[in-house]
Amino acid sequence: MSDKESLYFHTTPIQIRFNDIDIMAHVNNSVYQNYFDLARLNYFEQVFDQKMNWNVNALVLAKITIEYLNPIFLDEEIVVLSKVYSLGNKSLTMKQEIMCVSTSEIKAKNEAVLVAFGTKENGAILLPDDWRSKIIKFEKDISF
Asked: For burial by CB atoms within 10 Å, which of 89, 96, 129, 138 has the most?
């Protein structure tokens, strides 16, 4: 485990597919978001210990930024490191990094603000208490 991984409590391995590669022989920048999305979904399924019921309460993206640092190539083994580091009343902030396993080189960074959304309310809701407590227990070092 690298020093970088020790700051994160969640890791998602990513399978790079041939169709992810562009004419420059590296993963196309538009694909990075798919990797972050997959890892984010994986994170919440693990932390909440269940699949999210999108018909009741969900988390929706309010803001996302990606910083592209280094290209990703087809033959590299990569993982996405994910961490919720801030909890608000109705939202949370998550950071993620794509890392090459063999070199520990960070390929891209992502920060996302997610808002709790109630289907019945058709809008933002307070973060459910059980979500909040499970995230705090999982992250151990979160600020709120």
From this structure: 96
